[in-house]
Amino acid sequence: MFNQTDQMPVIRRIAIVGSGMAGLSAALLLQEQNHEVTIFEKSRGPGGRMAAKRVAGGSVDIGAQYFTIRNPAFSAFLNRYAEGSFRPWPGRFGYQTTSGQWEPFPQETRYVGAPRMTAITRGLSTAADVQAQTRIYSLVRQGQQWLLNDTDGESYGPFDAVIVTAPPAQTRDMFSNSRLTALSDQMQDTLAISSRAGQPLSIFGRRWNSPMTGCGARTRYSTGLRITRANRAGTIPASGGFSMQRLNGLGSTKISRRTRCRLP
Fold first, then answer.
1. Mean pLDDT across the stretch 9-19?
2. Which architecture, in CATH terms, is 13-166+198-252?
3. How big is the CA angle at 36 (ends 34 and 161), to the nearest 5 degrees?
4. What gap in Å lies between CA 159 and CA 124, rounded to an integer?
């Protein structure tokens, strides 16, 4: 059992760096416990890996391809804060064996944002205090509290606690700027693991040496382009670099049946 003593600091105000699913979920759950929470987001709006871009005739999800719901509490959370912003994705997913045959992935319900992935985080953000276009540069300890400094020289706080949900590279730099050496070193180790994950993957006996991670690769680093035009859609799983190099030329991108994970 958790026992609070007079010597333990009281946590009332909390800062969260990053407004992806992790940051928004943490903020909303903490607010339910009567904490005052402020989210700092470097971009113009929330999203994180739930990123999308509008293109001629449709939109492109350039981050997470889909998500699953395996905990009833998560389903209730989404319906409470972002109802109507997501729907099941009736795609057909498969992988190619060493013999060249396509086999189906295990069946489970996969969900996507409607009409694009950013709809989910924008729905969640309506109940949160999100300070956009604010890139936090460093954290400064002030007694038992924290001040946050942004890249424009502005300071925010004090806060009783700080939660960082930014990507590893950004978090490492922020910890380094804050002279939090031990934490910065830990993030460097995380980046080393992430870079190894970017090497060719062996999935179901096949080694993928292309920029793609493999159709439907179930790794925490899997991203890709989910293209929606009219009533047709397709997904190209790819690294972030591969996606961004081709993002502006999507008008001429051809999605073949061999590279498509969702077949209309």
1. 90
2. 3-Layer(bba) Sandwich (3.50)
3. 110
4. 22
Residue 65 CB partners (closer than 8 Å, separation 6+)? 112, 222, 223, 224, 226, 235, 237, 261
CB atoms under 10 Å from CB of 94, counted, come to 15
Q: Report the mean per-residue pLDDT for the chain.
A: 75
User: Could you tell me if residue 48 is left (phi over 0), alpha (psi between -120 and 50 degrees) or otherwise beta?
Assistant: left
- The reported pTM is 0.72
In the chain, what are the helix, strand and coil shares in percent, each to the nearest 5? 25, 30, 45
Length of the chain: 264
* Residues in contact with 207: Cβ distance below 8 Å, sequence separation at least 6, in sequence order: 200, 201
Give residue 187's pLDDT band: very low, low, confident or very high (50, 70, 90). confident
- Looking at 42-56, 76-90, 242-256, which range is the least confident one? 242-256
Q: Which amino acid is at 58?
A: G
Write out the DSSP string of 151-210: TTS-EEEEESEEEE-S-HHHHHHHHHHTT-HHHHHHHHHHHHHHHHHTSPEEETTEEE-S
Q: Is the pLDDT of residue 74 over 90?
A: yes
What are the φ/ψ torsions at residue 161 (nearest 5 degrees)?
A: -155, 155
Q: Is the dihedral of CA 221, 138, 47, 21 positive or negative?
A: positive
Residues 91, 261 contacting (CB under 8 angstroms):
yes
